[in-house]
């Protein structure tokens, strides 16, 4: 059939050229043409249908399509289709009009041919790259139909229909329309299509989601390809910007951005084009605050492109930057991410400077503004001096004329107020008249001129040259003009009036353009300074986003700070340090982004040589560690060790650090200390960096000068300790641990440094001593012997000071009190050092036993078992069957023996700690009375440092033995509760947290007093308590129930750091299943209690944070039901309002609305309160805006009517008595004030009540002990004396219940305090 049509087409080319073709031949050829085309087109359609069917059938299970052949004879329709389209194109290019009588081709014929093209384009695979030639062929065929056969109207309708139903055709038709408009001159086609889309009803587009996507994609693609033609037809689409379809708004805004980038950019725009550009930019800026988050996000992306292409006018920089900073607070994660990207694009493409420090820009701006003011003042004076008298006269002439007319034609009754006298000479009179004119005293100047004309008649300058002697007004005005302009008084009057003649040449040398240049410079600096201020403002907002839940937002925030750092903004260093903890993130993407950020910031330093680059790298890293916290240094160490393992830090950097440490390279003390710290960080990645230079570290860092710089010696110890952590045996290998002999020079230097500095008052000695003792226990063989010698030596020094004669003057730092029973005093710092040393040795001894000794016992046992197993196997080799059976039995027995051996070893270690370490025969026991005496007498030993050291030593000694801990827990918690020193309370809070992990059963009864520290008046204590309770809760060391409300109250703490700590806690807690969902009802009950002390506005702030973690629909529905039911147990109006406010924070759904309706009786009688009523209306209003179903809207209206009726008239439902309701809800009656038992909703006592009076007794709650140990516990308790402070008196036992409960503790059993009270009652 193709051959038939091809031959007929070639024949028609010669036939149509014949002008004398008769009608019968024309009809014959026309019928032949119609029949051939009809058959051919229907064959095309048949093959297309068959091709689609075979294509679907040819899909293999993996989804890959096989080659599409319609027959097995080698015929492939995909290969034959394109030549056929070319044939039809050639046919239509002939002058087929001559075959029709009216020279108009029938529309049915054109529709027949073009219909096949549209059907080909309907196939989704046509958009694939392999069918590009086919698409081009179809486009050219349709172009011929448009240009030769008036197919525009039909094509417009067909294209709009296909865009509505087939999403894949949008880019195809965009390319086609672009081709028709540029190559075939069919620009009107663009206008018709845009007009057709513009006439679509916005409401219809909202309902037709698939159709609007096709239109939107078509508009965006078309504007990108032919923006100038689309611009001329843009007005027909603008009304869609006010429609509800956000997809269409996005498409139109994208088209505007393309026009701004390709057509309306540059400085050579005409006035009309500038106006259009400004209108488009105004529209884009307005939609940065669009109601839909997708539109806001899209506009930010468009502005990012505009800024990157440098198409945004400088005058709009500040406005757009401000809008972008505002979008950082957007609730949409995508909007926030794109806002950060836009700010980064502004930084990277800013026209101001490569350094945007506000401080660096403020000083030049101030100087240039001052210079501009001086130039303006000078220019103003110059301008005033250069104004000619004629110009001044022209300015004053109208007022002078009016004054002359008024004076010469006075009204009746007016009299002259003042009589003027003429001067002696005409020249003096003229000068006086000029002075009056300069003072704008026109009335007196005119009167004096009138008198002078009469007095000096005919004398110069009082003669009129105008020739109008009869017109007095004109004469006087002419004389005044002559006088003022100075035509006759050049040499006498004009010179003093314009006396700047000497300066004129100098002033004229300064061209006016200099002032313009200075104004431009000042404007430039002002814009740069404002831009820098906006970026600085954005830094604080973006830094808080580093710990958002969205990974993409965190990554964008990190990239933003990298960009800001490269532009020298000083505040960026805070953000760079803030991103350090993200190196521990569980998200691989965030961790890799942090590594990449530090790689770009620090591993690509500038410099001409390796040495210069190494110096730059070391300087940058050292600056990062200035005033850094311990956590920051640990994070930086992880990053640097990662770089060292990947060989990204070059050897010259390591060499430079060693040179700085050994002082071969000139550096300060801080730089030397930073060098040691960096070497320790690198040793985590490559231990040989330190291992090969251990002697250098010892001889240089721990020499006799250690007393001069304890900070350096401490860092040296920390660096050497990396050898211990890096030499752990690999898994599966049974190698002996890395240890150094006791005689190694390292331990000799450490012992000398500790004992020598013991007697010297230095605040840095204790941190150094702790590092030294820790290092000894990590690396020494038999570290207890070395530490015992250190303790004995230091104790001997203290005893020698005690035994000094009484007449010897004590040092200024000595304690004002003396030890009872002794006649001599001891310096406070010496006692503080001794207690710190004792506590640290005790703690490290426990760590050594439970880690090193236990691991060594296990290693030796496993080694012995392996050797015995080998011997056993060798001895029974001949009996193969029995050998196999015995081997299996042996392995099983070994497994059992190994498990029991582990328990035996652990029991051995615990027994040593409980019975031997603090036994009277041991060295540590000698210091226990001293520690207890200082702790029991806070009034006598009132030095803050000594009290803190004693408290910490007590906590560490409690870590050693369970028996010792049980005996002195009351003392420890008494100090925690009663001590007036924040340092003591902080130390004991940390110690109590450690004890809760080591001896949970002993500490569990005291957990309410741990929670009480969350209300401590001192910021540092509250922060420490928050950290401790966070660790205990997240490690599941305490159970969590409503007591976590104490932690929730930290969300309104006045200190931002504590608020951040609380937010991080709840963020981590939200990852533990439904923890927050389960706790919310109890938290609400506690915090809404009027006795809790949380204000209503603060309660709202807390709830907004907590409800942000409720994201599941089922949780929302359940909370709606629970909150509605809690209205029954609410007792005050404040609780009603709090519960209703919580309902507004939930994203109410249709099912949630039904839950609310089911529980309407629970809150119906509370709707008389206007605040409660408004909260329910707000929740329903928000639901109304988000639903579209008529049924749901009917439910909302019904609920609103019920609310309105109850609010205005009350409810008809029977009110249930409060007492039975309370019993039904809580299953127990509400307690009376005198009862000791507290319900879950008990009030949260403020600090003033928790530490109520000075006379409250501190009763020890009964700990949970095994039955076999109860007798021993009772015997111990009978011998315990009651510990009270000298200023304390006894309180009632009920006050014990007022201790605050920690947020992380949720005991499953009744509280030990209540249990103890029950025992006493019996």
TrEMBL record:
Pfam families attached to this UniProt entry: Cnd1, Cnd1_N
Keywords from the named record: Cell cycle, Cell division, Chromosome, Cytoplasm, DNA condensation, Mitosis, Nucleus, Phosphoprotein
CC per GO annotation: centriolar satellite; ciliary basal body; condensed chromosome, centromeric region; condensin complex; cytosol; nuclear chromosome; nucleoplasm
One GO term (biological process): mitotic chromosome condensation
Region: Disordered, residue numbers: 1208-1243, 1256-1322
Keyword Secreted: no
Broad class of where this protein is predominantly found: nucleus
GO molecular function, one term: histone binding
Cytoplasm is among the record's keywords: yes
Location relative to the cell: Chromosome; Cytoplasm; Nucleus
Biased composition (Basic and acidic residues): 1208-1218
Bias-annotated ranges (Acidic residues): 1287-1305
Family designation: Belongs to the CND1 (condensin subunit 1) family.
Role played: Regulatory subunit of the condensin complex, a complex required for conversion of interphase chromatin into mitotic-like condense chromosomes. The condensin complex probably introduces positive supercoils into relaxed DNA in the presence of type I topoisomerases and converts nicked DNA into positive knotted forms in the presence of type II topoisomerases.
Protein name: Condensin complex subunit 1
Species this chain originates from: Gopherus evgoodei (Goodes thornscrub tortoise)
Gene: NCAPD2
């Amino acid at each position: 059939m193709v051959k038939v049509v091809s031959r007929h087409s070639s024949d028609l080319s010669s036939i149509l050229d014949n002008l004398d073709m008769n009608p019968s031949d024309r009809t014959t050829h026309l019928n032949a043409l119609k029949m051939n085309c009809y058959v051919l087109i229907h064959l095309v359609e048949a093959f297309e249908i068959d091709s689609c069917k075979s294509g679907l059938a040819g899909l293999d299970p993996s989804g890959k399509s096989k080659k599409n052949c319609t027959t097995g004879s080698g015929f492939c329709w995909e290969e034959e289709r394109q030549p056929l389209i070319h044939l039809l194109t050639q046919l239509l290019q002939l002058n087929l009009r001559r075959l029709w009588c009216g020279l108009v081709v029938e529309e049915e014929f054109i529709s027949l041919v073009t219909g096949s093209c549209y059907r080909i384009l309907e196939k989704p695979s046509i958009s694939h790259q392999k069918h590009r030639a086919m698409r081009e062929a179809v486009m050219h065929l349709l172009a011929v139909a448009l240009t030769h056969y008036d197919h525009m109207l039909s094509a417009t309708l067909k294209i709009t229909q296909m865009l509505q139903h087939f999403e894949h055709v949008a880019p195809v038709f965009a390319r086609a329309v672009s081709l028709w408009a540029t190559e075939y001159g069919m620009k009107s086609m663009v206008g018709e299509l845009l007009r057709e889309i513009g006439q679509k009803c916005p409401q219809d587009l909202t309902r037709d989601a698939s159709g609007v996507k096709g239109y939107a994609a078509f508009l965006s693609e078309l504007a990108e390809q032919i923006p100038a033609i689309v611009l001329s037809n843009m007005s027909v689409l603008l009304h869609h910007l006010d429609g509800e379809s956000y997809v269409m708004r996005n498409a139109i805004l994208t088209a505007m951005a393309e026009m701004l980038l390709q057509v309306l950019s540059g400085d050579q725009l005409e006035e009309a084009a500038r106006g259009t550009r400004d209108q488009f930019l105004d529209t884009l800026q307005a939609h940065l605050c669009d109601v839909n988050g997708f539109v806001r996000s899209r506009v930010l992306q468009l502005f990012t492109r505009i800024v990157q292409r440098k198409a945004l006018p400088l005058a709009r920089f500040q406005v757009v930057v401000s809008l972008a900073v505002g979008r950082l607070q957007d609730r949409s994660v995508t909007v926030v991410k794109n806002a950060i990207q836009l700010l980064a694009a502004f930084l990277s493409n800013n026209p101001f400077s490569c350094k945007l420090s506000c401080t660096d820009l403020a000083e030049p701006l101030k100087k240039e503004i001052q210079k501009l003011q001086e130039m303006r003042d000078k220019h103003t004076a110059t301008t005033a001096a250069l104004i000619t008298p004629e110009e001044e006269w022209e300015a004053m002439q109208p007022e002078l004329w009016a004054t002359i007319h008024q004076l010469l034609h006075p009204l009746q009754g007016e009299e002259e107020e003042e009589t003027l006298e003429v001067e002696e000479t005409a020249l003096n009179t003229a000068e006086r008249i000029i002075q009056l004119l300069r003072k704008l005293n026109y009335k007196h100047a005119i009167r004096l001129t009138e008198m002078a004309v009469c007095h000096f008649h005919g004398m110069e300058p009082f003669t009129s040259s105008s020739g109008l002697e009869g017109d007095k007004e004109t004469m006087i005005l002419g004389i005044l003009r002559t006088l003022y302009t100075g035509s006759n008084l050049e040499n006498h009057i004009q010179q003093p009036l314009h006396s700047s003649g000497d300066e004129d040449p100098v002033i004229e040398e300064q061209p006016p353009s200099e002032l313009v240049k200075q104004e431009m410079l000042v404007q430039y600096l002002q814009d740069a300074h404002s831009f820098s201020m906006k970026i600085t403002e954005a830094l604080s907002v973006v830094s808080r986003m580093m710990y958002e839940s969205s990974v993409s937002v965190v990554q964008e925030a990190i990239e933003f700070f990298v960009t800001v750092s490269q532009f020298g903004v000083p505040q960026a260093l805070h953000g760079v340090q803030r991103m350090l903890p993200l190196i521990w993130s569980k998200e691989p993407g965030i961790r890799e982004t942090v590594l990449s950020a530090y790689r770009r910031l620090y591993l690509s330093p500038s410099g001409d040589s390796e040495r210069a680059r190494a110096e730059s790298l070391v300087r940058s890293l050292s600056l990062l560690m200035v005033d850094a916290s311990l956590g920051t240094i640990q994070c930086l160490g992880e990053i640097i060790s990662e770089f060292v393992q990947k060989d990204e830090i070059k050897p010259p950097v390591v060499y430079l650090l060693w040179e700085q440490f050994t002082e071969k390279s000139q550096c300060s003390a801080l730089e030397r200390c930073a060098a040691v710290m960096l070497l320790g960080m690198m040793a985590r990645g490559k231990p040989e960096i330190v291992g090969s230079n251990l002697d250098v570290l010892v001889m240089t860092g721990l020499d006799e000068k250690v007393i001069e710089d304890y900070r350096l010696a401490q860092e040296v110890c920390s660096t050497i300790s990396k050898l211990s952590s890096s030499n752990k045996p690999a898994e599966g290998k049974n190698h002996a641990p890395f240890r150094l002999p006791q005689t190694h020079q390292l331990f000799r230097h450490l012992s000398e440094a500790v004992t020598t500095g013991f007697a010297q008052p230095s605040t840095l000695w204790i941190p150094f001593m702790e590092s030294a003792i820790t290092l000894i226990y990590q690396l020494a063989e038999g570290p207890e012997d070395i530490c015992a010698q250190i303790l004995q030596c230091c104790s001997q020094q203290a005893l020698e000071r005690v035994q000094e004669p009484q007449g010897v003057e004590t040092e200024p730092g000595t304690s004002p009190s003396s030890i009872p029973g002794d006649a001599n005093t001891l310096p406070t710092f010496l006692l503080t050092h001794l207690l710190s040393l004792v506590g640290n040795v005790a703690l490290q001894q426990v760590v050594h036993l439970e880690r090193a000794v236990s691991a060594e016992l296990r290693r030796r046992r496993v080694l012995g078992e392996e050797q015995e197993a080998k011997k056993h196997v060798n001895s029974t080799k001949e009996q193969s069957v029995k050998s196999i059976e015995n081997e299996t039995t042996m392995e099983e027995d070994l497994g059992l023996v190994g498990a029991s051996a582990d328990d035996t070893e652990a029991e051995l270690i615990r027994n040593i700690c409980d019975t031997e370490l603090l036994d009277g025969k041991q060295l540590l026991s000698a210091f226990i009375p001293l520690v207890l005496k200082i702790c029991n007498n806070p009034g006598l030993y009132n030095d803050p440092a000594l009290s803190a050291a004693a408290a910490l030593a007590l906590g560490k000694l409690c870590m050693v033995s369970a028996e010792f801990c049980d005996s002195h827990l009351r003392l420890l918690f008494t100090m925690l509760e009663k001590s007036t020193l924040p340092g003591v309370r902080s130390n004991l809070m940390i110690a109590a947290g450690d004890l809760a992990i080591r001896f949970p059963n002993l500490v569990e009864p005291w957990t309410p007093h741990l929670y009480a520290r969350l209300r401590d008046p001192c910021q540092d204590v509250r922060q420490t308590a928050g950290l401790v309770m966070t660790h205990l809760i997240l490690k599941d060391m305490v159970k969590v129930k409503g007591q976590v409300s104490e932690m929730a109250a930290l969300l309104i703490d006045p200190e931002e750091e504590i608020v951040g700590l609380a937010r991080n806690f709840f963020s981590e807690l939200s990852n533990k299943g439904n923890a927050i969902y389960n706790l919310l009802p109890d938290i609400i009950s506690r915090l809404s209690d009027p006795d809790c002390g949380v204000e209503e506005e603060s309660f709202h702030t807390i709830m907004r944070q907590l409800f942000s973690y409720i994201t599941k629909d089922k949780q929302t529905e359940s909370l709606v039901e629970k909150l509605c039911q809690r209205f029954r147990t609410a007792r005050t109006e404040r609780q009603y309002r709090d519960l209703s406010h919580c309902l507004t924070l939930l994203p109410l759904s249709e099912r949630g609305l039904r839950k609310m309706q089911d529980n309407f009786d629970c809150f119906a009688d509370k709707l008389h309160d206007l605040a409660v009523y408004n909260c329910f209306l707000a929740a329903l209003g928000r639901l109304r805006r988000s639903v579209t179903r008529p049924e749901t809207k009917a439910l909302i209206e019904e609920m609103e009517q019920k609310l309105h009726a109850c609010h205005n008239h009350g409810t008809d439902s029977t009110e249930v008595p409060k007492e039975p309701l309370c019993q039904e809800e809580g299953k127990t009656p509400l307690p009376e004030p005198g009862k000791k038992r507290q319900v879950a909703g008990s009030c949260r006592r403020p600090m003033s009540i928790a530490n109520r009076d000075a006379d409250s007794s501190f009763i020890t709650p009964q700990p949970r002990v095994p039955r076999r140990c109860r007798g021993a516990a009772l015997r111990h308790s009978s011998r315990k004396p009651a510990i009270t402070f000298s200023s304390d008196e006894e309180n009632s036992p009920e006050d014990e219940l007022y201790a605050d409960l920690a947020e992380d503790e949720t005991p499953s059993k009744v509280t030990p305090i209540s249990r103890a009270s029950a025992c006493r009652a019996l």
